[in-house]
Design goal:
Elements: E1 8-13, H1 34-46, E2 52-60, E3 75-79, E4 82-87, H2 104-118, E5 124-128, H3 129-143, E6 147-150, H4 155-164, H5 169-176, H6 178-191, E7 194-197, H7 200-206, E8 218-220, H8 245-261, E9 269-274, H9 282-290, H10 293-298, E10 300-305, H11 316-331, E11 338-339, H12 349-359, E12 363-366, H13 375-383, E13 387-390, H14 393-402, E14 405-408, H15 413-425, H16 427-444, H17 447-464, H18 482-487, E15 490-494, H19 508-517, E16 522-527, H20 532-541, E17 549-552, E18 557-560, E19 565-566, H21 568-575, H22 580-587, E20 594-595, E21 606-609, H23 616-626, E22 632-636, E23 640-644, H24 650-661, E24 668-672, H25 678-681, E25 686-689, E26 706-708, H26 713-724
Parallel strand pairs: 1-2, 1-5, 2-4, 5-6, 6-7, 7-8, 9-10, 9-12, 10-11, 12-13, 13-14, 15-16, 15-24, 16-17, 24-25, 25-26
Antiparallel strand pairs: 3-4, 17-18, 18-19, 20-21, 21-23, 22-23
Helix pairs in contact: 1-17, 2-3, 3-6, 4-6, 5-6, 8-12, 9-11, 9-15, 13-16
């Protein structure tokens, strides 16, 4: 990290949800909650620090008539150091986050293109939530840069809660893709250089439920709030405090909304503000209010449960929560005592809402079943509104610091009602809680302090991981092939055994002819489990042209040109934290593993023979993970097991080539037949699975841009070339 100011370039990722700087639509749906506000505020405040040169917040580009056209803008600048960058991924329609999992590699690839086009590499990648964590993790591997992760919520606690609610595991997986999420979170914990958490409870109880929880470094950095926006309620009484016209309008609008519902609107206000999610336990609060006649007599209840137009058009989870809320309102006959407005403006109305409740000597209630943090608690506290909140996670830490309310068990309606009643009936207690919240939020929870602590932490991580540098350095030997690779517009890369060459070589001559005819614009490479010299030997034996690139040993080595010039940059890139001797020692006790001959072993590849067997791969994963080994495991043809560095694979090597030689991934055609080809087939590149493929690739059927050919081997490759019109009359795409 250079010692000059304005040297830090941070790329943050928050892929799902609707992200914009102005007036974020918090609560619109399950994917547009507190995380959106968090990443926006973090980006804003980081850009104000002198050490930070640039902050780019990456999210998904959405061009959908159901949402604002703000989300279709490719870039949105806040200032000269901070912007939102929107990447198109899986089309342009807005969709819930669970549907994006199969398409995250596309986001990775297009981010690489963005970096290449701007010719400006960041100092670190920071993923928010596991989908963006996956993207940041992959980019970190490709560029050899630090990877920071913030979970916001985690899959294992969510799965446990859904199971306890009676939801079947098969239904949970179908709806939430929870097992995919948990597997990804385990990967993230293996590879993250830093995990940013909001509370100690989050680290101990939530991350602590994962196998790899002890592997990363953690830092507790509580989120902050904008104390100017969320100023205390009594500021509005001061003669020098003049509200903006927007704030005045917001206040009047909210009072009108409340008066529509409430018979006696001047009573103290019990306020709840959250997304319509089962975990937020809105029904528990309505039950507490509905079953306590004394509480109904002394106060009104107002629940702002997201933004809605027609409940029938909402997702099932939200529809169920809101429908139950309405039915409970009817059951307890809360008409005139309970307000349920359909919308609220985050920028102006929410701060005014807290202040209105504080002016009425009310209480803010968060009865969530689980609450990782609870940003609304800080917002309410900053305005002077006392709290009643669940005795879990963030609320526990917030109350410990701020001493401004009462913790309750969320499954006990009587306890919820009793806590609210205690605060409303004791004026001295209300005043003490109000003052404590105002003062202590400003002491412990500002965005300025959050951004400063965060910056110090990531600079330390960058210093610790700077040995590999920002970009792998090209060796002098590669320069002889530079002209050749700078001229080609397209690249064909194929596996060798049972893909390019096999039992049926009847179409090989035709493929050789095609390669020769298209040599001026199409590069030719192989990606194989073989050693480079072995790969060259079999290619020459079958009179194939000399490849421009050989990716050998399952993606652990890259060579160029006829002299097989070694790519030292790739070597340096994948070498970090590679511990082959330790791996061999750990796996020596497994009788089902047999080391292959010495010639099959390489600097970055440990190769075994392993027949299929119950839990064998899982046992290998477990022992390596327990010892905090970073690795990639490749099992192919149901008999070959390779352990390689966590930064290495055929797919990562191809992305490295795309970046290094500035050939768009969309202009690569890759072909394979077995499990060790799976990763390189995924992504934005065109993929061809030859007709004689192994069963491991069945799961790729239906994946975007992967074509299953009917013909085997070289015939299948030609079939794919024709299918994609590869290197045809279309012009080279803009990278």
């Amino acid at each position: 990290m250079p010692e000059t100011d304005q040297s830090l370039y941070i790329q943050m990722f928050s892929i799902h949800g609707l992200v914009r700087f102005e007036n974020p639509e918090l609560g619109r749906d399950a994917d547009t909650g507190g995380q959106v506000l968090y990443v926006i505020e973090l980006a804003k405040h980081l850009s104000r620090l002198p050490e930070v040169r640039k902050v780019d917040l990456f999210t998904r580009l959405i061009d959908d008539p159901r949402v604002s056209n703000d989300y279709a803008r490719p870039a949105e600048e806040l200032n000269d150091k901070c912007r939102i960058v929107r990447i198109q991924c899986r089309g342009k329609r807005y969709m819930r986050k669970e549907l994006l999992w199969p398409h995250l590699d596309e986001f990775v690839d297009k981010t690489i293109k963005f970096i290449k086009k701007k010719n400006d590499c960041p100092d670190l990648f920071h993923g928010h939530y596991p989908d963006a964590g996956y993207v940041a993790m992959k980019l970190s591997e490709i560029y050899g840069l630090p990877f920071v992760f913030t979970g916001h919520s985690l899959g294992i606690p969510k799965k446990q809660k859904l199971l306890s609610d009676g939801m079947k595991e098969s239904e949970i997986n179908k709806t939430y893709k929870i097992d995919t999420r948990i597997r990804t979170e385990e990967q993230i914990l293996k590879k993250a250089d830093l995990i940013v958490a909001s509370t100690n409870q989050e680290i101990e109880d939530q991350y602590g439920s994962y196998k790899n929880s002890d592997r990363p470094e953690y830092r507790v950095i509580p989120p902050g709030i904008d104390v100017e926006r969320f100023h205390p309620y009594y500021h509005d009484r001061l003669p020098e405090k003049e509200k903006s016209e927007f704030a005045k309008y917001a206040q009047a609008s909210l009072l009108n909304q409340l008066e529509r519902f409430l018979m006696y609107p001047d009573k103290p206000l019990i306020l709840a503000l959250s997304r319509p999610d089962k975990r937020k336990n809105i029904s528990g609060l309505v039950q507490a209010f509905g079953e306590d006649r004394e509480l109904q007599a002394m106060a009104n209840l107002a629940i702002f449960a997201g933004i809605r137009k027609d409940i029938n058009d909402m997702e099932d989870n939200e529809k169920e929560v809101l429908t139950r809320m309405l039915l409970m309102m009817d059951r307890y006959d809360l008409y005139g005592k309970m307000a349920i407005p359909k919308k609220h403006d985050v920028e102006y109305e929410v701060p005014e809402l807290y202040r209105i409740a504080a002016e009425k000597r009310g209480v803010f209630v968060n009865p969530a079943l689980t609450e990782p943090f609870g940003l609304t608690l800080l917002e309410a506290a900053a305005t002077g509104l006392p709290l009643v909140a669940t005795n879990d996670g963030g609320p526990r830490d917030i109350m410990g610091n701020c001493e401004n309310g009462i913790l309750i068990q969320p499954d006990n309606p009587e306890e919820i009602a009793g806590a609210i009643r205690k605060i409303l009936t004791d004026e001295q207690l209300w005043q003490q809680y109000s003052k404590n919240g105002i003062m202590n939020v400003r002491r412990y929870y500002t965005w300025e302090s959050h951004a400063r602590t965060y910056t110090d932490a990531v600079i330390q991580i960058i210093d610790e991981t700077s040995d590999t540098g920002k970009r792998p350095r090209a060796s002098a030997a590669e320069k002889s092939v530079g002209k050749r690779l700078s001229r080609v517009d397209y690249f064909l890369i194929t596996d060798i055994d049972n893909t390019l060459i096999g039992e049926d070589n009847s179409h090989l001559e035709e493929l050789i002819k095609w390669l020769t005819q298209n040599r001026t614009k199409v590069g030719f490479g192989v990606a194989t489990g073989r050693r480079a010299d072995s790969a060259m030997e079999i290619l020459l034996k079958h009179d194939l042209p000399r490849p421009d690139v050989v990716i050998s040993d399952v993606g652990t080595e890259i060579y160029y040109g006829k002299d097989l010039q070694y790519d030292q940059g790739w070597d340096t890139h994948i070498a970090r934290r590679w511990e082959p001797e330790k791996i061999r020692k750990l796996l020596a006790g497994f009788k089902f593993l047999k080391l292959q001959e010495k010639s099959a072993q390489r600097k970055f590849k440990i190769s075994y023979d392993m027949e299929p067997g119950k839990d064998r791969i899982a046992r290998v994963h477990d022992i390596l993970s327990q010892e905090k080994i970073r690795y990639t495991l490749v099992y192919s043809h149901e008999k070959y097991l390779d352990i390689i560095p966590y930064r290495a694979s055929k797919g990562k090597a191809i992305r490295y080539l795309s970046y290094k030689w500035e050939i768009p991934l969309s202009q690569f055609l890759v072909s394979g037949d077995s499990g060790n080809d799976e990763e390189m087939l995924r992504g934005e590149q065109m993929g061809v699975v030859v007709g004689n493929y192994s069963p491991e690739l069945e799961e790729l059927k239906g994946v975007h841009k992967i074509y299953f050919a009917k013909k085997p081997e070289s015939g299948g490759i030609l079939e794919g070339i024709k299918k994609y019109d590869f290197s045809g009359p279309h012009k080279k795409k803009d990278s």
